[in-house]
Structure formats: structure tokens, C-alpha cells
Amino acid sequence: MHSSSQIIPVQYHLETRDDMLRLWSLGVVQMKKAFQHTASILLRELLRRCFGYKVDWRRLFLFITVVAVSGIISQILVLSYLSHNWFVSHETDSSYQSLNSTKQSNKLIKEPDKVEAQPRNNSINGSVKDKKLADTTKITTSSPSNGLVPSHNQRHIRLLPPNQALVYAKKEVDHAPSVSEVPDLYAPLFRNVSVFKRSYELMEAILKVYIYPDGTRPIFHKSSLKGIYASEGWFMKLMEENKQFLTKDPEKAHLFYLPYSAHQMALELYVPGSHNMKPLSIFLRDYVNKIAAKYPFWNRTHGSDHFLVACHDWGPYTVSGHKELHRNTIKALCNADVSERIFITGRDVSLPETTIRVPKKPLRYLGGNRVSLRPILAFFAGSMHGRVRPTLLKYWGADVDAEMKIYKRLPPRVARKMNYIQHMKSSKYCICPMGFEVNSPRIVEAIYYECVPVIIADNFVLPFSEVLDWSVFSVVVAEKDIPNLKDILLSIPMRKYLTMQNNVKMVQKHFLWNPRPIRYDIFHMILHSIWFNKLNQIQT
Question: What PANTHER family does its record include (predicted)?
């Protein structure tokens, strides 16, 4: 407990730190002058005594070098001692002090002016002028500041209990300093790049994840890196290999990962033709009950600091057998359908569905043709799964409209001239209708091949929509508007299309699987969405 009398000295230290900075700078200047004055006197005296004598210049040069180096070392030692005592010692009083001192230290750099973000025009047919206004007013600032967590504050944050560290991070994100430019990030893609930047930095500085060792292969700790469900496998692999975010001490963990594969579970437990998914939910229910009985961590929060990653269509149904798993756990799901009342916006995470054809080369075929070499207005080819695709084919099949290349499976006579990937690389818009479930690997494929995705899936929460503004690099069409699809696409001005297509190129980096993860790639974006939604649950 901290009494009010303990808070006053903290404020005193923070308010007097400017004075300490001035004293420290003054000390540097005075010490430099003193050293120069002393060196000048010694040199004059040395020359006076040596005048008229034979001088060993080699020894004289060695002597001067020793004096100079000694002076430099003495300055470094003295200044290091002073800076350590002035700036570090005040940070170790209490956990309460470290939380507040970090915020104040950011203000020492410079407090940015607060601005209100203007709402973006979400209309597909919005004018270019409105879009430019939204882009320029969305994130503005007069004085960007360095949002990095100072290293000495990082050490104290890591000493905080996990729940206190999360409260600290929540407050920091809620009051993120405004920035106009961020290295390696393209601001127009984000709802608020300032919030994303601060949240991502804090994730890197704070987050620790504990992976339960329980469970046997192939359902646990192993998943496929190939095919349309590869996202869950790649995340599991890279998470278990990670050194930055993993901890072997569960007491230090902010999040707990349930390392199972919904895809492998379906292969192992589902009886073909039975239409019965209950064995899957019972299996996962028993697993959660086992770790809840073996460890104290699940019962401590009723599973709210636990998460799972499942890309199989049946992923949401695997959690239905356990009430707390269903209601409390953060679920990263490819099947992010809010209408089924399993996925909860603001807590759960929409997982991108990525088709990986060659696991050793996940970035193969990346890129596409320039706009002048994209003669096809819109393209789709695929099985007639679900309710949307037959309707799409009915109105816009290739035999109905020559500009709309809408097929079932790509006909062999067509594929011989131009295969599936070449069609996407040669199209302005790639149609991404839902199949049996709302998500489709075509969305990420379109991004890979630099084709503007046209998403037709009511009730679908788009991946990373916590931070990304999908309206600037995609078109969302309601299922009821399929008869008007061509008119909707033709009504988009060329200038707006060019901006959207460029944004597709810029957002591509956030959807790439790298064998060794790099900042802001899909692995880190998934982990950040889980972290971000965990912070959203915290009440401050």
C-alpha cells in the first residue's frame, strides 16, 4: 500500500529533473573548461623547462598522450556516476512511482499537441477530395515525440507483477502521443497509427507468453504449414520457437497459449460423414479441465488471460463444450463470424486465412502486374460452396459479362492460356466471396498479388481490423448488392483505384509469413491483436 505522503516525493523528483539536466550540462561544461585550463598550464610549464635542453620527443609525445587519455577517462567516470545517481536512483522507490515516472519522462521530451481525428469517408463511391482530406486529417501532429520506453524504465516495468504491467500498458496506449510519421509504417493504412505504434512498442517491451507443455502430438504442439489452414500451424511453430516473447516461468506471463491445432483435431477425431463435431469440443473441454486442475493460472482469471489460434472452419465449435473457454478466452479464429455468437468483437481476433503452397518458400509468387497490364475488371474462380458463390455466378458468370471473369473451377481451356495466379495478377479487382464460412484465403491471395480485394461476406470481422482501416485498400460489398457489383466497381474513380491498389502493396508486409519473423509481419500482427484485445478488457 502507498500512502499519499509517499506520492509527494515522486512528484518532487519528476519536477526537479529539468533542474538536474541543467546542472548536469553545466557540470560537463565546467569540467571541460577545467581540463583545458589544466592541460594548457602543464604544456606551458613543460615547454619552459624543456627550453634549451635536448628533448626526447618520443617520450614527450607518450607523456602528452597519457595525460590526455587520463583526462578523458576521468570525465567519463565522474559523469557516469553523476548521471546514474541523479536519473536512476529516483526510479526505484515503488511500483506506483515507476508507472507515473515513465509517463512524466515522456513529457520531458516534448508533449505533443492533442488533435481530434476526423472521421474517414467509408463510402465506396466517396470522392477523391474527401479521401485526401481524411488521409491528411486522420493523423496530424505539431511535435512528434520518441515513444520508445526508456531502457531504465523497461527494467522496472518488467519487475512489475503481470497484472500491474498490463494496467500500465493500457494507460500508455489510451494516452498515446500523436505522431505523423513512423519508420517502416505507412500511416494511411491504420485507424490510428499513433495508437498502434505505442501499443506495438509496449508489446515488444513487456509481453511474455507461457505455453503449456501438456498435450501430445499431433493435436498439440504440431500443425500443418501447408494448405488453406496454414495460419494456425505457422503461428504455433513461430511462437514455440520464439525467444523474445516466451517465458518458462508462468508467474511472469501476461498471456497463456493453448497450443492445439483445430485442423489436426478434425483429422484425428472427426468421423467422416457423421456431421458430429461434439467429440472435438469434448476433447478440448477435457484438456482445459486438466490444465485447470494441474495449474492455478486458469482458475485465477477463469481463462481470460488465455488464448488459442484456430484456422479450421470448425475452430469456433471446438470451444463450445467449456463455458469459460467459450466466454472468456481470447480466440484467434479464421472463421470470425459474429452472427454465430461465438466470436466476440473487441475480445476475439480475426485470423487471416493464408494458403501456403510451398512451406519452404512461403513468399513464392509474391507481387503482380502494373495497372496498365491488368485488363480484367474482376476475377473469381472456385467451388460453389455456400450461399454467396452461386448467386455471384448467376449474375456475373463469364458467359454473362465478358469484363467479369467469374468461373466455377477455372476451365482447362482457359487455364492453359492463363492460370489462376496469373488471372489474379492481371485483374484490377479480385472477388473474395465467402464459402461455407465467412473467411476466404482469396483475401490474402489478392493482397499477395497486388489485386484490390472485393469482400462479399456479411457478418465477417476483417483481420486486424482493430488497427487496420480496410476501406483504404479493399471494397466491401453486401450480399444483397451482388446484382449491382459491376456498377459498384465501375463507379470507383481511377484516381481512387490507383490509391487503393498502392495501399494493397503497402499493406502486403503485414500479411507475410517469414521463416524468421520480422517486425510488423503477420506473426507479429496476430500476436499484437491478441495483446491489444487483452488490453481492451482491462478497466482503468
Answer: EXOSTOSIN FAMILY PROTEIN, EXOSTOSIN HEPARAN SULFATE GLYCOSYLTRANSFERASE -RELATED
- On whether both 343 and 416 belong to a single domain, the answer is no
> Residue 481 in contact with residue 460, Cβ under 8 Å?
no
Residues 486 and 376 in one domain: yes
CATH number at residue 466: 3.40.50.2000
**Are residues 137 and 68 part of one domain?**
no
Residue 205 has pLDDT above 80, yes or no: yes
Strand order in 452-456's β-sheet? 404-407, 376-381, 427-433, 452-456, 475-476
**Count of structural domains, the chain:** 4
Q: Sign of the CA dihedral 481, 482, 485, 487?
A: negative
Dihedrals φ, ψ of 158, to 5°? Answer: -70, -20
Residues 64 and 158 in one domain: no
- Render pLDDT for 61-73 as a digit per residue (tens, 0 to 9): 676 676 666 666 6
Residues 114 and 84 in one domain: no
Which of the listed residues 52, 70, 92 is the one where a domain comes to its end? 92
Three-state DSSP class for residue 68: helix
The mean per-residue pLDDT over the stretch 191-205 comes to 97
Question: C-alpha angle with apex 154: 249 to 348, nearest 5 degrees?
Answer: 60
Q: How far apart are CA 343 and CA 310, in angstroms?
A: 12
225, 356 contact by CB (below 8 A):
yes
41/150 same-domain check: no
pLDDT tens digits along 232-241: 999 999 999 9
Distance (Å, rounded) from C-alpha 504 to C-alpha 272? 39
Domain membership of residue 438 as a residue range: 371-511
Does a structural domain hold residue 452?
A: yes
Q: What is the mean pLDDT of residues 405-428?
A: 96
pTM of the model: 0.74
Answer whether residue 306 is part of any domain: yes
Give the number of other CB atoms < 10 A from CB of residue 237: 19
Same domain assignment for residues 214 and 351: yes
Closest C-alpha to 135, from 144, 147, 143, 126: 126
Cβ(437)–Cβ(335) below 8 Å: yes
- Shortest CA distance to 393 belongs to which of 407, 377, 373, 414? 407
452, 430 Cβ separation under 8 angstroms = yes
Cβ atoms of residues 297 and 339 within 8 Å: no
Residues 387 and 330 grouped into a single domain: no
Cα–Cα distances in angstroms (integers) from residue 139 to residues 89, 332, 465, in the given order? 37, 29, 17
Q: Which of 92, 124, 158 is the last residue of a domain?
A: 92
On the CB side of 502, CA atoms within 13 Å amount to: 8
Question: Does residue 286 surpass a pLDDT of 80?
Answer: yes
In a domain, 195, yes or no: no
**β-sheet with 349-350: strand ranges across:** 209-211, 255-257, 306-310, 330-333, 349-350
Q: Is 129 left (phi over 0), alpha (psi -120 to 50) or beta?
A: alpha
Would you give the DSSP letter of residue 312? S
